[in-house]
């Protein structure tokens, strides 16, 4: 079956996770990256890939931006996320970036929470529209302002991600940067399919 014509109902349900070996390598890669990369490098990657996502989605007219396209799965992305529109991708980044920034603030303040992080809770709405573009820009500005006021992100309190285990504030920030890269690759595939 052609990727663009496959029925979204054939996709795995949200929260189904990743193949085990892929999850293992991603977990190991995140740990290594977060140990080697400092705050400025991680934030630079986070912002660079966010700008690239915006540069792909901004020129689209509203009808095109709302069109969901089924693409091959990007490594690090659940099967259920394969049939999104450009605006859905941006909305997902808004949802995740807000949640991770809240987690970073909590952990950097020496606190934690009993709230379970669930991948199924951060899926976008099929109704996502052009308003998400400005929301994403606002979230990116908030990240820069907030992180400038936090002295130390490494060590201290940790909170578990369902795929990557307990992470400190710096590891959560590193995860956000790598997450942008995954959805940048997805955006590239979606936009190329829409041309």
TrEMBL record:
Q: Where is the DinB-like domain?
A: 49-187
Q: Name the domain of life this protein comes from.
A: Bacteria
Q: What is this protein called?
A: DinB family protein
Check the record and name the Pfam families matching this protein. Answer: DinB_2 (PF12867)
Output the InterPro entries linked to this UniProt entry: DinB-like, DinB/YfiT-like
């Amino acid at each position: 079956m052609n990727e663009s014509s496959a029925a979204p109902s054939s996709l795995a349900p949200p929260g189904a996770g990743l193949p085990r070996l892929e999850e293992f390598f991603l977990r190991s890669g995140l740990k290594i990256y977060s140990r080697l990369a400092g705050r400025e490098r991680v934030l630079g990657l986070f912002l660079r890939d966010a700008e690239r996502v915006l540069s792909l989605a901004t020129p689209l007219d509203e009808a095109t931006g709302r069109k969901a396209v089924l693409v091959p799965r990007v490594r690090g992305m659940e099967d259920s996320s394969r049939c999104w529109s450009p605006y859905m991708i941006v909305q997902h980044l808004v949802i995740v970036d807000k949640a991770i920034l809240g987690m970073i603030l909590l952990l950097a303040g020496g606190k934690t929470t009993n709230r379970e992080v669930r991948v199924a809770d951060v899926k976008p709405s099929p109704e996502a529209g052009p308003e998400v573009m400005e929301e994403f820009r606002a979230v990116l500005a908030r990240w820069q302002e907030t992180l400038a006021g936090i002295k130390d992100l490494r060590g201290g309190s940790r909170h578990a991600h369902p795929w990557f285990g307990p992470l400190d504030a710096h590891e959560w920030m590193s995860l956000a940067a790598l997450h942008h890269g995954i959805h940048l690759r997805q955006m590239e595939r979606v936009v190329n399919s829409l041309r």
